[in-house]
User: Which sequence fits this backbone?
């Protein structure tokens, strides 16, 4: 199992933490060097999100037309090329194009790896394999934090280092992932119908809710610390690294799901995520770092759970289920970030975080049915 999981963790770390999330860590220095306005910086962030969304929408198609292995390698290649472009960027347009290219891999890689896991691992290992690979985001966040501290004033060299690591990860995955004799997606992907989404409606709604409630933490937790809790820049960076390190523990999601079931695992994750938002509002260092630990664990746990939920709904085409759940998470995060900013401006940080905690808690009541949507069975039924 680990021959696939370890390079998978590295690839997720490269495409998510390095190629996508590290832009926010280097943003003050990038803005200063390239004379970017706040609106230009925000637009570049939106461009990266647009690339992520586009990649999620096209992931299942590309996997069906080519192969999961090839899409994984394309994910690493776009991260490598995009980050090289960022190192050489001289202005807004070149940086925006580079950020778009770099962001594509984060949308392709998770659906593609769910397919790699389906064709490479035994069924009893798949839940664990998927959820451990998902911890790559946390591993990457932990690694990117110290790099951002060391290369804060020389951000271009930071991206050079990230690009080198991306190339090595690409080579590792090319060696580790074997060419499949027959891709499961090829025999079923073309039969997928939009009408089947109704059976996954609870998963979609849950993913939107978790994305919404978690968005305020990803977008505003560091600002909250520096503006309200008087944290220094380095102190808030340590907070970020602690959050990332804690997320690695979220890799136990597959084991927890197998032991207590998906439904109870989902409710446990919602409770821990809600607690992380509440504890951040308590003005004490112990509570603040406890919040970082709880959020890191719960977010990676929940994204791993949605991977499992998606693959169980679409056993014939697991990449479709993962694309769908992650796309729903992205919708929730996009809406939540806007709502959080408006609420913070009109009220305050504590009220905004407590409000999002209350909203997130409401989603604990969503049903967690895992009825499989088998495209083969549906096609056969329709033929009768």
Assistant:
């Amino acid at each position: 199992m680990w021959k696939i999981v370890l390079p998978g963790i590295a690839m997720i770390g490269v495409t998510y933490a390095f190629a996508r999330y590290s832009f926010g860590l280097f943003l003050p220095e990038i803005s200063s060097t390239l004379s970017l306005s706040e609106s230009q910086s925000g637009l570049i962030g939106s461009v990266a999100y647009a690339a992520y969304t586009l990649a999620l929408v096209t992931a299942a198609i590309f996997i069906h037309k080519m192969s999961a292995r090839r899409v994984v390698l394309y994910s690493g290649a776009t991260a490598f090329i995009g980050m090289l472009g960022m190192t050489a960027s001289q202005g807004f347009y070149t940086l925006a194009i580079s950020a778009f290219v770099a962001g594509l891999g984060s949308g392709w890689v998770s659906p593609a790896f769910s397919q790699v896991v389906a064709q490479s691992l035994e069924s009893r290992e798949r839940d664990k394999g998927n959820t451990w690979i998902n911890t790559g985001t946390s591993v990457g966040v932990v690694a990117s934090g110290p790099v951002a501290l060391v290369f804060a004033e020389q951000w271009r060299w930071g991206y050079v280092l990230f690009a080198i690591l991306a190339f090595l990860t690409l080579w590792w995955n090319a060696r580790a992932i074997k060419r499949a004799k027959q891709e499961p997606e090829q025999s079923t992907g073309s039969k997928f119908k939009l009408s089947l989404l109704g059976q996954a409606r609870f998963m979609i709604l849950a993913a939107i809710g978790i994305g919404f409630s978690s968005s305020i933490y990803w977008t505003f937790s560091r600002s909250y610390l520096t503006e309200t809790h008087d944290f220094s820049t380095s102190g808030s960076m340590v907070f970020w690294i602690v959050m990332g390190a804690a997320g690695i523990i979220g890799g136990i999601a597959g084991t927890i799901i197998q032991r207590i079931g998906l439904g109870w695992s989902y409710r446990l994750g919602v409770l821990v995520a809600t607690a992380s938002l509440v504890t951040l509002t308590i003005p004490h260092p112990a509570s603040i770092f406890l919040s970082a630990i709880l959020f890191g664990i719960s977010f990676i746990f929940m994204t791993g759970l949605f991977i499992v939920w998606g693959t169980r709904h679409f056993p014939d085409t697991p990449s479709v289920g993962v694309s769908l759940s992650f796309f729903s998470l992205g919708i929730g995060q996009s809406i939540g970030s806007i709502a959080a900013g408006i609420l913070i401006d009109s009220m305050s940080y504590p009220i905004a975080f407590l409000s999002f905690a209350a909203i997130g808690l409401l989603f604990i009541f969503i049903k967690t049915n895992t009825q499989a949507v088998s495209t083969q069975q549906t096609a056969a039924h329709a033929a009768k």
